[in-house]
Write a structure and sequence with these properties.
Blueprint (H helix, E strand, L loop, with lengths): L1 E5 L4 H8 L5 E4 L7 H9 L4 E4 L7 H14 L3 E5 L4 H13 L3 E8 L6 H14 L3 E7 L3 H9 L7 E6 L4 H10 L4 E3 L14 H10 L1
Parallel strand pairs: 1-2, 1-8, 2-3, 3-4, 4-5, 5-6, 6-7
Helix pairs in contact: 2-3, 3-4
Length: 209
């Protein structure tokens, strides 16, 4: 399944980019939406990921926005591994009450840790409450890709993605190795991570395969 990652400002613009999407991630911190607008947005589609990264919002504000997404019907919520338990635990509890799947994510924009460290990170994500573990790391060499793709042999729901040009293959391979979805951008101007492939490019690649 292809998941559009949407990080634009304004309710109507976000709604426009949701048209025709099988699945989408809403980067709430980029949208400028109010709590009520967030709830309305997540009521409008039945397969959305609620993500609100640390930016200009306080943890209290992020909690309000993510809670509104869950109450609106978010299917998934993405919480960062490094977040304090005081922030994540109430949201995880609320997610479970509303049948919202918890993603615990780890991002490294500089490098891909070695396999031993990646395995330890997975265990930390699981212990924090992950129902799906997401790892996104910068790929600098071929062995990084080998290590990332080997994580799909781990007996747990997994999404392992390589950032940067060398990581592109991991975004395609994810769907073939058991990931429930992979991220795509709406177009080349709306990329939300280094090396992200557009939805049209990904469909072309998958049709060839």
């Amino acid at each position: 399944m292809l998941c559009r990652s949407i990080a634009v400002e304004g309710f109507e613009k976000v709604k426009e980019l949701l048209n025709g999407a099988e699945m989408a991630e809403i980067r709430i911190e980029k949208t400028g939406l109010s709590v009520e607008e967030v709830k309305m947005l997540f009521q409008s589609h039945n397969n959305l990921i609620a993500t609100c990264r640390v930016e200009n919002n306080t943890d209290a504000e992020r909690t309000q926005l993510l809670s509104a997404a869950i109450e609106g019907g978010a299917k998934w919520i993405d919480l960062e591994l490094e977040s304090e338990n005081s922030f994540t635990e109430p949201l995880i509890e609320k997610a479970k009450i509303h049948g919202c799947t918890v993603i615990i994510s780890y991002h490294n924009y500089e490098e891909t840790p070695d396999l031993r460290e990646l395995t330890a990170i997975i265990e930390k994500c699981i212990s924090k409450g992950a129902e799906l573990v997401k790892l996104a790391t910068r790929v600098n060499k071929q062995t990084d890709i080998t290590n990332l793709l080997s994580l799909y042999s781990y007996n747990y729901p997994m999404l392992a993605l390589g950032m940067g040009k060398l990581g592109n293959i991991s975004r395609v391979a994810a769907l073939k190795l058991g990931a429930p979805f992979t991220f795509v951008s709406c177009d080349s101007e709306e990329v939300t991570a280094p090396g992200q492939i557009t939805e049209s490019e990904m469909n072309t690649i998958l049709n060839i395969l």
